[in-house]
Every structure is written in C-alpha cells, then in structure tokens.
Amino acid sequence: MDIEKVISELSFKAVRSSGAGGQNVNKVSSKVVLSFDLNNSESLSEEQKLLLFENLKTKLTSEGILILNCDEDRSQLKNKEIVTKRFLKIIQNALIIPKERKLTKIPRSVIEKRIKEKRTNSEIKQNRKRPEI
C-alpha cells in the first residue's frame, strides 16, 4: 500500500461544527469530513480491498465509502491532519492479518494434577457420610 497514493485519493470537506462555541462556530468552518471511496481506489490491490471490506464493514456506507469526521480543534488544518492520521491508522490496522493460533496438547502433569484433585475432593466428600456399621 502506497500511503501517498491513498492520501491523494481522499476527499475533504469543511463544515461548520455543531454544538456550543459562540460566534466562532457560527462563522468558521473548522470541522473536516474525510471520505474515501474504497470501491474505486486505484492504490489498493483487490486482496487489500477485500480485507478492508471485511474488517471495516461496520464503518463503511452501503456504497463502500469510509467517512470520518474531526472537529476536535478550532483550526481546520489541524483537524485535517488529525483525521488523516486517524484514517491511516484505521486502514493499517485493518490490513493486518492475524496469525493463526496453533493448538497445543495439554501437558500430562496438568491432567494428572486435575485427576488427583478430583480424587482428593471425592475422598473428602466420602468422609462426610456416616460410617456404615
């Protein structure tokens, strides 16, 4: 995955932030909305696209577009940097293929210890009964 190619395919839109904030919110468009069209991306291979579709299916729209928002800062430029870093982190984490877990055999000592504990527990319960005369 070429990061610069992926970043060139991103589209940004500046929007007015919602919520309280006084006059600055009413006149400055500091919120940044990032959108990335996964279907039409030329920088990703088909295997990478399938992996991203599988891992990001809850974050994608029905058209296969990933949308991220950022209105943490009052500066539009900083919000753009933050949302770009967040996007790259999401993409890189989604492209990681987890290692397959190898099943291991239960050690003989563990099995013997469990059986011994069961035996002692059984003897304790047997000793609680009244003796037969």
How would you characterize the overall build of this protein?
With 133 residues, the protein is of the alpha+beta class. The protein has a domain at 3-94: 2-Layer Sandwich (Double Stranded RNA Binding Domain), CATH 3.30.160.20. The chain is 46% helix and 14% strand. The chain has helices spanning 3-8, 23-27, 46-55, 76-94, 108-128; strands at 11-15, 31-37, 65-70. A 3-stranded antiparallel sheet has the order 1-2-3, with helices on one face. The longest helix has 21 residues, at 108-128. The radius of gyration is 29 Å and the shape is elongated. The chain starts with a helix and ends in a 5-residue tail after the last helix. The mean pLDDT is 89.
Brief summary of the model shown:
The chain is of the alpha+beta class. It has helices spanning 3-8, 23-27, 46-55, 76-94, 108-128, and strands at 11-15, 31-37, 65-70.
Order of secondary-structure elements: HEHEHEHH
Decide which structural class fits the backbone. Answer: alpha+beta
What is the level-2 CATH architecture name of the domain at 3-94? 2-Layer Sandwich
Number of helices: 5
CATH class bucket of the domain at 3-94 = Alpha Beta
Q: Order of strands in the sheet with the most strands?
A: 1-2-3
Which parts are unreliable, with pLDDT below 50 for 5 consecutive residues or more? Answer: none
Alpha-carbon distance between the two ends: 82 Å
- Count of beta strands: 3
**What is the overall shape?**
elongated
Largest sheet: 3 strands, antiparallel
Helical residue percent band: 40-55%
β-strand amount:
5-15%
- The overall pLDDT, averaged over residues, is 89
Radius of gyration: 29 Å
CATH topology of the domain at 3-94: Double Stranded RNA Binding Domain
